[in-house]
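Ticket reopened. Same input as before:
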Amino acid sequence: MQAVRYVGLVVFAAVFALPLYLALVAATRSAPAFLNGVPTLPGSQLLDNLRQVFGPGIPNSPPLGSLMANSAAMALGVAIGKLLLSVPAAFAVAFFRFRGRMLVFWLIFVTLMLPVEVRFFPTYQVTAQLGMLDSFSGLIIPLVASATAVFLFRQFFMTFPLELADAARLDGIRPLGFLWRIVLPLSKPNLAAVFVLEFIYGWNQYLWPLLVTSGSHTTVVMGIREMISAAQGFAVPEWNLIMTVTLLALAPPVVVVVVMQRWFVRGLTAGIS
Amino acid sequence: MAASVLAPARPREVRAAVERPPVRRRPARRAGGDGAAVFNHRILPYLLVLPQLAVVGVFFLWPTVRATTEAFERSNAFGLGTRFSGLSNFVSALTNGNYTQAIEVSLIFAASTTFLAMAIGLFLAAEVEQLGRARAVYRTLFIWTYAVPGAIAGALWLFLFQPELGPGARFLGLLGIKWNFALHGAQALSLVIALTVWQQSAYNFLFFTAALQGVPVAVHEAAAIDGAGPLDRFWRITFPLLSPTTFFLSVMDLLYALFSSFAVIDVVTQGGPAGATTTLVYQLYEDGFQNADSGLAGAETIVLIGIAALLTVAQFRLLNRRVHYR
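Engineering reply: fixed in the latest deploy. New output:
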């Protein structure tokens, strides 16, 4: 019974991995190898394909090195930006009483109902009006407000005993010192969890970069469609190059999830999606 | 939030409290309660929330207001100036064949991906939970697809299912299916559904795994002693205990299918053939950017906000109710 279960799960895992395996096969072959269908085993052309995509690249698309760098900048910008905005906001809501605190809470809550795929049309217009098209600020800032991150940190801060803050105050530590020297060090696991999750969120964006950037700020994920149509335009479709780029584009988020699985799962199950 | 539906995800502090009984009798005061302020400061809290609120104001609220005004306006024939037009943009959206087709496509797409991703995620989670060894390895094997960017997943599947040459297309050919998703709407829709399920079942797997770990072993043992078989135990004991997670996931999957499928569709089918894979979000993209009809796009944005708000509120009501019962 257990043996059947193991075998069944291996089959499932293999089916899940099949698209990735075939991409690997394609990335290690030369283009003519696909004319009679996709071969079953990897070849030896991986280095040639890598040299090709990083060197001359795919016609009519920006150099791959800069696409990858733009993706990294966007992912890091979104992840760090979300931390920079959500931690102070959650700290204020959890440790201070001030007029309008509930209003602040609701304003942040409302953003849950406005994912970028819902508000992209008018947000594009506002971003254009502010002259932020085709820039990193336009790429990143409209995505850095996150209700889920604020709520996660607020929920965590609410588990702090007040005696801790009282003691800090008696020792003459000011609020920001309390945040910096006590709250942040205790929040490391949550900071890591949110960072991992938001890095992936930023790297994987497609619609927003497609709208606000062209040319020099293109990311590798949004560039893939143009590359596919360019590579298919050849007499022999260059699927080997496309799949090489594909592997490079999916490697950062997949590696981060696999290596930092603990933080990823923690961030996700703590209510961020 | 979601933590409240997942027993194992409870913060470490709770466990610590169980292991070391507190010395003092009165419960510890916590930050964020309704008691006295921890810190008193006139300006600091406002400064702390300002960056977050600035982004919310400029990139969430202003666009929403803008979409609302656009939804009730129509530009004149030369695109110079606008006038109030009441509900006419909403009426023209809803009487437009494209939009009603997009509603239908979205419903089919969302319902089937939600059902399939949940079924597969639950099945895999339950099976892996029964394993003696190597659970961690299997978990990794079933969650990685969630990290693949949608557009990149689209590229992988496009290669797999390109008509004639793709290995998937050849396999289907052996089964007697003439595969060409560029011509057949039903095939195109099945392809984007399968691709979305491939990604989203990982998310469901992860949450069901966490929920399954919270089901007490004792309940199972008692049922086993009473003579209930494994399937019986699963459907009559485990599954009902998972219901908060099941509800949470159905809302999350619907939200994901309705709103986050743009990249996959744009890379694989561009909404075609003949609108067969044009969802509400894709239709809005076409009306707003390709047809440059800001009144229509504004009205469609309001419709999407309404759907998202409904699903979000439904979810919060349920989660809050659970918090009260505990």
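Residues 97-130 of chain B form the longest helix (34 residues). DSSP finds 14 helices and two strands in chain B. Please confirm and we'll close it.
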